[in-house]
Amino acid sequence: MNSDFLSQALVYLAAAVICVPIAKKVGMSSVLGYLLSGIIIGPFVLGFIGQEGQDIMHVAEFGVVMMLFLIGLELEPAAFWQMRKAIAGFGISQLVGTTLLLLIPFLFLGWSLPMSLAVALALSMSSTAIVLQTLKEKGLSNTMAGQSSFSVLLFQDIAVIPILAILPLLATTAIVPSEAGHHSLLDGLPAWLQTILVFGAVGSIYVVGTYGVVPLLRIVAKTGLREMFTASSLLLVVAVAYLMELVGLSPALGSFVAGVVLANSEFRHELESDIEPFKGLLLGLFFIGVGASINFQLLSESPGQIALLVSLIILTKFLVLLGIGKIFKLKHDQNFLFALGLSQVGEFAFVLLSFSNQLQILDAEWTGKLTAITAISMMTTPLLLLANERFLAPRFGTKEAIDEKEADAIAEHHRVIIAGFGHFGSTIGRLLRANGIEATILDNNSDQVELLRKMGFKVYYGDATRLDLLKSAGAGEATLFIAAIDSPEINKNLVHTLTKHYPGLKILARARNRFDAYELMEMGVTNIYRETLYTAVHLAVDALGQLGFRKYSATRQGQKFIQYDEQGLAKLASSRHDMTEYIMNARQQIEFQEKLLHDDLMQNFSSEDHSWDGTYVRDQLLGANRPDTTQPDTSVKVG
Amino acid sequence: MPNRVLILFAHPLFEKSRVNKELINQVPSQAGITFHDLYEHYPDFNIDVAAEKELLLAHDIIIWNHPFYWYSCPALLKQWIDMVLEVGWAYGPGGNALQGKVVLQILTTGGPQASYQHEGNNRFTMSEFLAPFDQTVRLCKMHYLPPFVIHGTHRLQPSDIRAQATEYAYLLNHLLNEPLDIPQLTTYTYLNDWLKATKPL
User: Fold this and answer.
1) Which membrane topology term applies here (chain A) (predicted)?
2) pLDDT per residue over A329-387, tens digit each?
């Protein structure tokens, strides 16, 4: 490992670690934080990195590849199909409208049609990273504006693929290989044939993904080694990207298709949470690269032109979105949120612009300027939204409440989450379902998961103690979390994670015995269900019945036993840290319990139920040796 | 000094009730009035006798608020009466814990008021049906007031229900804030009649 690599890593990581939290602190998205750190360490401010900003972007573009893989994974075909109208309606009108409106000024600038079209397409993109994160942070994901934004972004994400395929057709000169040293097998073929091959390659990924990858992942999952699963997830994405590059296609496109193919497999969420951190870091690196490669010299040469273009582009995008919102009957405040939120140029523009540059549709100067414009437009969004919140929204009166009935919701979460769907959890799930309550299920047995999916359950596959999986399952939005994992150790870890990260979440926890229960109590859980208590008491009650005890008296004894036992448990838990006291207390408790039960026995099984106990009532009334005329007629029952 | 009111509410299928839901909506959440939903507290009929006794001691007026099932109360309220009103505590030698408190019933019946007459379908009057409750209260050395009854719930229109709920709210407010003239109250068959006679327009 050479020191050059270490020093570079040091610069990048330090810049990110310092800038991103600061950006978050002042209310900007992490994308902006990365961009800023790129600018700061770049050649125009501190100069830690020079021209290698461009090189690092090539490496970091792999982050975009992973992002597309993840977007593909999230495209559950069924949910996608439900949203088709919204996606098509909002998406097509936004993309077509913005592209056409932007074409006009570009043609006026004297640009060629291919160049204008390529740039207009690139600039019509909005930033998925910025918008979705902002919506989530503000808790607006389920509003009309949130849902509409999601539709637009989803359509754009999908549209990138055909656009990447179409761009070579716009190229007027022969296509040069995207990277020196990479001679793709398609070089020299005519453009139309390349386009056909793009679609052919997509088809082959589908076939291999369905019949090759899923069975392979199943084998890996059975080994139970988490790092092996991570390795295979990465291998999958890298392999697809490499294959695509080998034939000269977009790695992003390939990994997107691979993602879609695997979206329906039981490994969806496991893959998602395995790839997520890598994607985050590489995307961060990508944005740092973008920040570092913003050419401030170009900016300083023509600041007026850049400022004009930024305003023009944002205004155009804003107006198109506002018009669409009107057509689709968004209320004023929702419409402003929607139109301003999506008014920036997105991260896909970086990809499309640099691709256009490689295809020689776009010259280096304009690529530089437009990249800078894209980055600047991203920085305006938080400011615009702030202005909207402060000045615009209050004037347009009532805010629309979060509409629960929104039929096109893709990411709706259930109110109940059940972790662990073995024999214990499944009983809970079935009873809830019989009462019309659908629960989200977390389980790590892939065979089980497959079966449940067939039965129509919403199942997340993976280790429930992992925060990222809990997050994607909606632990932040749920009202009730049922921790029902077979292994008490894992269940306790899960509860620990939950109480730490979701302090407001109501937890119902399964415990094997009283010692598990103590630990759960210490974590602050109050609803604890010991497998060894209720079933055992039930059995004991039946046993008493079999032995000739009256069934109801036995049942009352069972009820009382549970009550005493739980009270004793609570008392013990509070003094558990002092071991000697605990031991003493435990013995005392048992003696106490024995005494209670013994007393019950002495009193004809009804020591507490005095009014039903004829002997007790008679003793009370006659024991005072006083004739009593006011005796209620309880003696009839005792007979 | 204001009275402390305890509502012991018993309805095994409250979520499907029309009238009682409207009534309970009127219960004010303020100090001095305790709404105690028995079926919600003791779904397994496992009544905590000690806690119930404490609750009784902390109040002056006790209301049994329930639908009238088979000319009596729902099973859990009967269980409550059986278990909580213990000998030596509520009645019998030394059983003076509840002495002087006031008990009344707030009831809903499906049948109309006319059917609770000697010549009606139900052949007996409400007072006759409620005799066991009356005597239970008397035996515990408390005062039993005439009931507040909403008859004919099967045929009540939403507007009728709202009107009854207003009466209910007025009654609760009166019980909370006014001293009770028990001899005068017991001259009425229903508290409804007393309300009509005394309520300012």
Assistant:
1) Multi-pass membrane protein
2) 887 777 888 999 999 998 888 878 888 888 888 888 888 888 888 888 887 887 888 78
- Nearest chain A residue to B82 by CA: give it: A611
- Total residue count of chain A as it appears in this document: 639
3-class DSSP assignment, residue A350? helix
Tokens 């327009």 found at: B201
Question: What digits encode the pLDDT tens for the residues A144-153?
Answer: 788 888 889 8
Contact A234, A278 (CB under 8 A): yes
Q: How far is CA A149 from CA A155, A339, A487, in A?
A: 10, 8, 42
Answer for the pair B32, B59: CB distance below 8 angstroms, yes or no: no
Task: State pLDDT tens for residues A490-518.
Answer: 899 899 999 989 988 999 999 988 778 88
C-alpha span between A193 and A175 (Å, rounded): 13
Judge whether residue A404 has pLDDT over 60: no
- Domain parsing of chain B, residue ranges: 5-198
Which has the closest alpha carbon to A429: A415, A439, A414? A439
CATH 3.40.50.360 correct for B5-198: yes
Q: Residues of B with CB below 8 A from A626's CB? A: 93
* Residue A638 C-alpha, separation from nearest chain B C-alpha, in angstroms: 14
CA pair distance A453, A77, nearest whole angstrom: 14
Q: Would you say the C-alpha torsion A492, A497, A503, A505 has a positive or negative sign?
A: negative
C-alpha A490 chain-centroid distance: 22
Q: Do residue B93 and residue A620 have CB atoms under 8 angstroms apart?
A: yes
The DSSP symbol for A174 reads P
Q: Given its phi and psi angles, is residue A509 left (phi above 0), alpha (psi -120 to 50 degrees) or beta?
A: beta
B139 near A CB under 8 A: yes
Stretch A174-197: mean pLDDT, rounded? 57
Give the residue-averaged pLDDT of A575-601: 58
A631 touches chain B (CB under 8 A): yes
Sign of the torsion angle spanned by Cα atoms A315, A310, A24, A473: positive
pLDDT at A318: 93
CA B192, B195, B197, B200 torsion: positive or negative? negative
Q: List CB contacts (< 8 A) between A563 and chain B.
A: 46
Strand partners, A480: A416, A506
Is the pLDDT at A403 greater than 60? The verdict is no
Best of A559, A565, A610 to disrupt the B interface (most B CBs within 10 Å) is A610
Whether the predicted pLDDT of A61 surpasses 80: no
Residue A188 DSSP label: T
Chain B interface, best mutation among A537, A559, A609, A611, by max B CB count within 10 A? A611
The two most distant CA atoms of chain B are separated, in Å, by: 50
Pick from A582-591, A598-607, B61-70 the range whose average pLDDT is largest.
Answer: B61-70
Q: Which two tokens stand for residue B197?
A: 């006679």
Q: How confident is the model at residue A178 (pLDDT cuts 50, 70, 90)?
A: very low
Which domains are assigned to chain A? 3-201+270-396 (1.20.1530.20), 416-609 (3.40.50.720), 610-639 (no CATH)
Residue B118 CB neighbour total at 10 angstroms: 9
How many whole angstroms separate alpha carbon A476 and alpha carbon A470? Answer: 8
Q: Which of A370, A361, A371, A341 is nearest to A135 (CA)?
A: A341
Q: What does A214-255 look like in DSSP terms, one character per residue?
A: HHHHHHHHHHT-HHHHHHHHHHHHHHHHHHHHHTT--HHHHH
Evaluate if pTM is beyond 0.90: no
